[in-house]
Amino acid sequence: MNNQANKLKNLMNENKNKKSKNTHFISITSGKGGVGKSTISANLANVLASNNYKVGLFDADIGLANLDVILNIRIQKNLLHVLKGECSLEDILIEVKPNLWLIPGESGDEILKYNDKNIYERFLNQASILDELDFLIIDTGAGIGGNILNFLEMSDEVIIVTVPDPAAITDAYATIKTTSKTKENLLMIFNMVKNENEGLKVFENIKKVADANIKNPLKLEFLGFLASSKDVSSSIKKRTLFTDDNTSSSDELKALASKLLYRLEQKVLNNVSNRSFSNFFRKIIERF
């Protein structure tokens, strides 16, 4: 674990004399569990890392953190241990592969119990080691709990994952309605659909209802889809990433990643503010 942290520190130090870059914060959420949110989070992070972006993958799924299972790695400590003062941030970072690091999370309710200002300040000082990340992918919990909404509000982009199931669609709409109070732009990914046409059809139905009933300014956009595939289900069972293989599912994920990158590149042209991992978490902690 320490060797992994040292590798990360050395990598970040390569750019210590360069102007600090802006980190893009992407929250991936869902109205209900079981729609493939964490699988999409891990594979999106993998695609970005494979394209030479430095990516942090933060497991913020309250009470159900499972990215370690998906990535087939073993974690011993997580963010809660850092905030209890039992270890440093470096101690919990796991290098999954080149350019990709997992930041194991913990229940937000538990973190609230450990609000020692000195420990928080020490954590924020340590967090600067991750300020050279290009992306932080935040795998949130399902639903619209208070701590989840904090992450969504602070993120540059919010991606809502759903499947073509009535209950999942209803819960996805509830997430859209609540999140629209603080975010004017929301993206959607449709998982386990027959094809792109089915995903677009479900999206248009959701958008029609949203346009008619949500009074807050809202631009809801279709980011992409993943068709039901044995390749994906097989990778989940094997605890591998399907985007490491040359399959149609991998192509679908890469297509939506490309669309996301294009959006963010356009935003960079109009946004010169300094956004870093440490600043992001400082604002999150202030909300606690």
Structural account:
The chain is an alpha/beta fold. It has helices at residues 2-13, 37-50, 67-70, 79-83, 89-92, 108-112, 117-127, 146-154, 166-179, 196-213, 230-238, 248-270, 277-287, and strands spanning 24-30, 55-60, 94-97, 100-103, 135-142, 157-162, 185-193, 219-227. It has one domain: P-loop containing nucleotide triphosphate hydrolases (Rossmann fold, 3-Layer(aba) Sandwich). An 8-stranded mixed sheet has the order 3-4-2-5-1-6-7-8, with helices on both faces. Helix 7 runs antiparallel to helix 13 (277-287). The model is unreliable at 11-19 (pLDDT under 50).
Quick recap of the structure?
The chain has 288 residues and is of the alpha/beta class. It has helices at residues 2-13, 37-50, 67-70, 79-83, 89-92, 108-112, 117-127, 146-154, 166-179, 196-213, 230-238, 248-270, 277-287; strands spanning 24-30, 55-60, 94-97, 100-103, 135-142, 157-162, 185-193, 219-227.
> What's the arrangement of strands in the largest beta sheet?
3-4-2-5-1-6-7-8
Strand content: 15-25%
CATH class: Alpha Beta
According to CATH, the fold-level topology is: Rossmann fold
CATH homologous superfamily classification? P-loop containing nucleotide triphosphate hydrolases
- Average pLDDT, rounded to a whole number, is 86
Rounded to the nearest angstrom, the radius of gyration is 18 Å
Separation, N- and C-terminal Cα atoms? 29 Å
**Count of folded domains:** 1
Q: Give the fraction of residues assigned to helices.
A: 40-55%
Low-pLDDT segments, ≥5 res = 11-19
Architecture in CATH?
Answer: 3-Layer(aba) Sandwich
Structural class: alpha/beta
